[in-house]
């Protein structure tokens, strides 16, 4: 989770879902700054297991699926790049697609950036059209006033 406080504070929270329950229970929580190493255990095998090494703790994790582990690593890597200026954690034994430029986050960010640029361009164009319409309206108003004044004199 990331707060909206200044400066932003990011934390990693481990939750567990017990069999037969639909809710999650918070187990442990660390600040992102405490993360020192992310260990994917085996880059050549899709497995849900991984380890996180923190300043004062070592913790073993199991994601629901190998795919969810991959997504978690991508989100975690992106979050570290964004919020940590010093001491970024080391990612070891991770599949290259996690760190690659074609991650789902980069694709999503590119899509959002593209959408924002298109919307901004559309707004600028609309603003220009509205500006021209206002100028035309002002010209018509002045013309109507002049016509009214001329007609009143006649």
From TrEMBL:
<dbReference type="GO" id="GO:0006893">
    <property type="term" value="P:Golgi to plasma membrane transport"/>
</dbReference>
<feature type="compositionally biased region" description="Basic and acidic residues">
    <location>
        <begin position="128"/>
        <end position="141"/>
    </location>
</feature>
<dbReference type="Pfam" id="PF15277">
    <property type="entry name" value="Sec3-PIP2_bind"/>
</dbReference>
<dbReference type="GO" id="GO:0005886">
    <property type="term" value="C:plasma membrane"/>
</dbReference>
<feature type="domain" description="V-SNARE coiled-coil homology">
    <location>
        <begin position="101"/>
        <end position="154"/>
    </location>
</feature>
<feature type="region of interest" description="Disordered">
    <location>
        <begin position="128"/>
        <end position="154"/>
    </location>
</feature>
<dbReference type="InterPro" id="IPR042855">
    <property type="entry name" value="V_SNARE_CC"/>
</dbReference>
<keyword id="KW-0175">Coiled coil</keyword>
<protein>
    <submittedName>
        <fullName>Syntaxin-binding protein 6</fullName>
    </submittedName>
</protein>
<dbReference type="GO" id="GO:0000145">
    <property type="term" value="C:exocyst"/>
</dbReference>
<dbReference type="InterPro" id="IPR028258">
    <property type="entry name" value="Sec3-PIP2_bind"/>
</dbReference>
<dbReference type="GO" id="GO:0006887">
    <property type="term" value="P:exocytosis"/>
</dbReference>
<dbReference type="GO" id="GO:0005546">
    <property type="term" value="F:phosphatidylinositol-4,5-bisphosphate binding"/>
</dbReference>
């Amino acid at each position: 989770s990331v707060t909206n406080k200044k400066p932003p504070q990011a934390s990693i929270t481990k939750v567990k879902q017990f069999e037969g329950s639909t809710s999650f229970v918070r187990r442990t929580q660390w600040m992102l700054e405490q993360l020192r190493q992310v260990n994917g255990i085996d880059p050549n095998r899709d497995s849900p297991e991984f380890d996180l090494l923190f300043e004062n703790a070592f913790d073993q994790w199991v994601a629901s699926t190998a795919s969810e582990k991959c997504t978690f690593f991508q989100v975690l890597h992106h979050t570290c790049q964004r919020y940590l200026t010093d001491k970024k954690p080391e990612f070891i034994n991770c599949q290259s697609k996690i760190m690659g430029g074609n991650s789902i986050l980069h694709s999503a960010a590119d899509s959002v950036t593209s959408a924002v640029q298109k919307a901004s361009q559309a707004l600028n164009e609309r603003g220009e059209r509205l500006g021209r319409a206002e100028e035309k309206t002002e010209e018509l108003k002045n013309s109507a006033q002049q016509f009214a004044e001329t007609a009143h004199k006649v």
